[in-house]
Amino acid sequence: MMRGVILGAVLLLAGCAPITASMDLSPAEAVRRAVERQDYGRAREILRRQEARGEAALPRSQAVHVQRLAAALEQAMLLQAAGHLRRGEWAAAEAAYRRGLACCPDSRALAAARDRAREEQAARLQALHMRLLLARGRHLARLAGLYPQWLRLAPQDAAARREWEMVRAQVGPMAQALTRLGARALAEDAPFLAVESLELARALAPGEAAERRLQAARAAREDRLQALQERRRAEAESQGRARLAALRGALAAGELMGARRHLQALAADPPAGADLEALRADLERAVTARMESGLEAGRRHYLAGRIREALAVWRGLQRLRPGDAELAAHVRRAERALESLRALEGMSVPAEEAPGDAKAGDIGAQGRTQGGEQEHQQDP
Question: Looking at the whole model, is its pTM more than 0.85?
C-alpha cells in the first residue's frame, strides 16, 4: 500500500511539474516555447492577454512575426486540406483541419472550411445511401419476379425455395425503407426521386396504399415537369425579346454584321409576334444602302489614286455581300492596280537623283494617275 501511495505522489508531482514550470515562465519565454511547439493559438492568447494589460510580451516586430507564422500555418493547412478534398481523401482532409486547429484553435477560416467539408461529406454520403437503397430495391424486385418462375418450373428445387424465402424476408423491410424514402423526397420537393422509390416499393409490396402514394408522387412530378416547361418557354421568350432588341439596336447603329448574326439567332427560335420577314427586309435595305455608299466611296479613292484605301473599302463590303459580282470586279481591278503600283515603286529612282530626274519622275507619276483614271472610265 505504501508503494502505491509513493507511486501516486510521484505521478501527481510529475503532472504538476509542467504547470509549475509554465507558471514560472516570463510571457516572452512562454510565447517562444509555444511557437516552438507550433501552438500559435497559445502564443497569440498570451500576446492578447499582455496587450489587454497594457504590457508587451514581445517587441512589436517579434509579435508581428508570430502572427505571420500563425497565418502561414493556417494557409498551409487550408491548402493541404483542399488538395485532399480534390482527390476525395476525406479522412486526410479532416486530419489536416484537426492539425491546423490544434495549432491555431481560434482560426475561423479553418473552422469554417472544416464545417463546409463535413457538410459536403454528409450530403455525399446521403446521396450515396439513396443510390445504394435504390440499387438494392431494384435487385430485390428482379429476384422477387424470377424466383416464383423458377419454382413453378422446378418445384422440387429445395435450394431455390430456401433462397426464395430469404429474399421474401428482405422484401418487406426494403419496401418500407423505399416508402420512407419516397415520402421524404416528396416532402423535400424531389418528385422524380419520389416516383422512382415509390415505384420500387409498389413492385415489392403492391397494394392500394402503395398505389395511392405512387399516384400522388406522379402528380407532383407532372406538376414539376409542367413548371419546368413553362420556365424554359419564358426564358426562351425573354432571350428572344433581348435578341430582337439587340437586332434593332444594331440596325440603328449601322452594325450590319452584328444585326445579321442576331437575325440568324432569332430565326432559330423566334419570339412570339416577331415578324422575321420584315426584319430581313429592313436588314437588306440597310445592306443595299451601305453597298451603294461604299462602292461610291471606293470609286472616289480609286480615281484619286488612293488604291489601297479603295481596296480596303471594297473588301469590307464583301463581308456584307460575299457573292456580289460588281463588287468582286472592283476588288480584282484594284488588286491589279495595286500590284502594278508596287512594281513601279520597286523600280523608282533613288532619292539622291538629279533634280531633272526627279521632275521626270513627277511627270511619270502624273501620267500613271491619268492612266488609272482612263482605265476606271473604260472598265464596265
Answer: no
